[in-house]
C-alpha cells in the first residue's frame, strides 16, 4: 500500500465536483442559485452546445468585493455562513462554499464581478486548476461567471454526457424550478445564440406555470393556502383530470428551494385518494415556508433532500389543505370511473363484474320507474335486437361478453367501412328509450329492460370504427387553419417524434414549436368532438409510462382507444332523442359493443323475471309461467 497522504487541493475539489457537478445542468443550478443569493433581479443564462461548450450567467446582484474574488474560487470558501450556529438557520440557497471551486476544477472558469461602490470590475480566470492573478476590467455592477469546456479535465465524466437534447432537458428542468421559485426575478435563457426563455418578473406563479406547462394547465390549477405554526403553505394544485402518468409535474419548494420529500409527496397522494385513476399522479406546485431552524438542509450534497423537524405536522397540514380544496365548493370532483376492471382488450381477459356500478345503475332505474316522467316518455321506434344480446344468467344480474379480438379479421369485417345500422327488424316490437341522469340510456326490450352507459357504448362504437377504417389506410384528417398548441414536456415531445408514424395514420399531425410547445396541425374528422390536446396528452402519458417498447399494433390500439374515449359523449351530456336512437341502433353494429375498450360493460339487462323477483311478483307463479298475466 502507498503511504497515507494529504491530497492536493485540485484533486480534493475534483472529488467534491463528483458529488455536485454531474452534468451541465448541475453547473446551471449552482450559478443560478449564487445569483439569487446575491439578490439579483435579473439573470441572463447563455448556453452553447447544451452547456458542454459554454455556460455563462450574468446577474445584477451585489457583486463580489475585489479582494474576495480569488477566495470565491477556492474550496470551502463562502460568505454565507461563518459559524456552526449559522448552520442551524440557513436562509440562503448556498452555504457549502464548494460550487465554484468544484466547477473550476473540472472546467475553465472566468469570473467578472463588481460591487456598487467599486470603480471598476475585477476579472479572474482559472484554467486547468491554475488561477491567473486578478486584473481590473470594465463591467456593470453584478457578476458574470463563465464556464467553458465542462469536464475537460475529467474525460470519464465527459464520456457520460448525453445528447444535447437530453442535456438541455435537464437544464430546462433546473431553469423551471428556479423560475417557479423566484417569479419576481427576470430570467432570460439563450441556447446557441437563440432566445429560449424570456421571463419578465411577475407576481403570478400561474404565469410561470403557463410558460413551462402550457395555458391549459395554468388556467385549470386551483389555489390552496394554509397557515399553521409549523409552516405556511401556499400552492397551485391540479384538479384530478389533469393528473399525469408520472410525478414530474409535482414541485415542492421549501423556503425557496426545490426539494423532494417523501413524506410530503405521500401526503399529496393521500389528498387525491379516490379521485384519480389507478397510477395517475397529481399535478402540484407547492410552496412551503418554515422557520429556518426547523429544517436541516445539510443532509444532501445538492440539498435536494432536507430533514424537517415538524414533518408530521406539515404532512397533516398539506393533506388537509389539498383535500379540502379538492372536495370543497366550486369543484365537481370527477370521481375516477371504476377502471380497476381488467381491460378486455388484446390480452383477452374478460372484464369482471362491478357490483358497485351495477348497484348505482339499478338504483337509477328504480328511481326513474317511481318518477312521474316514467309515464310520459315519447316512444322511439328503435330496432329491437338489443335484448337478444343480453340473457341474464341465474343468480347473476350482468352477463358481459368480452369482445372477440381476432387481429386482422374483426376490424376489417365491414370492408373498412362500418356497417349501416339495421333498423326495424320485421316483427320486432318498437323500443321505448329514455336518458337517465344524462348518463344512462334505458330501453324497453321484448324481454325486460336494457340499460346502457352512453359514454362506454359510444366509446366502444368509435373504437371499432377507427380500427375498421385503419384497415384501409390513414384516417381522413382535417387541417386546422391555426394550429392548436399544447404545452408539453421535452420527454413528451420526444415521444411524439417516436410515434410520428402511428399518429399520422390516425390523422394527427403534431410538431414541436419552440420550447415545450407542440403545434397540432391536423386532426381526424371522425373525432371532431375530441379535444386534440387531450387525446395527445392521454396517449403520451401511456407511452411514457411503458417499461418496454410497444408493438405497432399496441400503439395504434392505444391511440384509437384514447381518441375514442375523448370523442365519445360523456356521462352528463344531455342527448337528443335522435342521438339516443342512433346510439342504441349502432349498438348492434357488428354485435361487438358489449364492453367499452376499457372493458367496462356498456350495458346491463334486467330481465322481466329479474324485475318480477325484485318486486315480489314472482311468488304467485313459478318462473316458467311468468309470462302469463298475474292474477291481480
Ligand atoms: P456558496 O454558494 O455555497 O457560498 P460558491 O462556491 O457557490 O459557494 O460561491 C462562493 C462564494 O462566492 C459565495 O459565498 C459568494 O460570496 C460568492 N459568489 C458566487 N457567485 C456569486 C454571484 N453571482 N454574486 C455574488 N457573489 C457570488
Ligand atoms: Mg453557491
Structure, described:
The protein is an alpha+beta fold and 632 residues long. It is 31% helix and 20% strand. Strands 1, 2, 3, 4, 5, 6, 7, 8 and 9 form a 9-stranded mixed β-sheet that branches. α9 runs parallel beside α10, α14 packs across α16 and α15 runs antiparallel to α16. The N and C termini lie far apart (105 Å). The relative contact order is 0.08. About 14% of the residues have low confidence. The structure holds adenosine-5'-diphosphate and magnesium ion (MG).
How do the strands and helices of this protein lay out in sequence?
Blueprint: H1 9-20, H2 24-37, E1 42-48, E2 54-59, H3 69-72, H4 99-106, E3 108-114, E4 121-127, E5 130-131, E6 135-137, E7 142-148, H5 155-159, H6 164-181, E8 186-191, E9 194-199, H7 205-213, H8 215-220, E10 222-228, E11 231-237, E12 250-254, E13 257-258, H9 262-271, E14 284-289, E15 295-296, E16 307-308, H10 311-327, H11 355-370, E17 433-436, E18 440-445, E19 448-453, H12 454-470, E20 477-487, H13 490-498, H14 500-506, E21 509-512, E22 517-524, H15 532-545, H16 552-567, H17 577-586, E23 603-607, H18 608-614
Parallel strand pairs: 1-8, 12-14
Antiparallel strand pairs: 1-2, 2-7, 3-4, 3-7, 4-5, 4-6, 8-9, 10-11, 11-14, 12-13, 15-16, 17-18, 18-19, 19-23, 20-22, 21-22
Helix pairs in contact: 1-4, 2-6, 6-7, 9-10, 12-16, 13-15, 14-16, 15-16
The structure holds adenosine-5'-diphosphate and magnesium ion.
Adenosine-5'-diphosphate binds at residues 30, 34-35, 38, 59, 61-64, 72, 77-80, 94-101, 143.
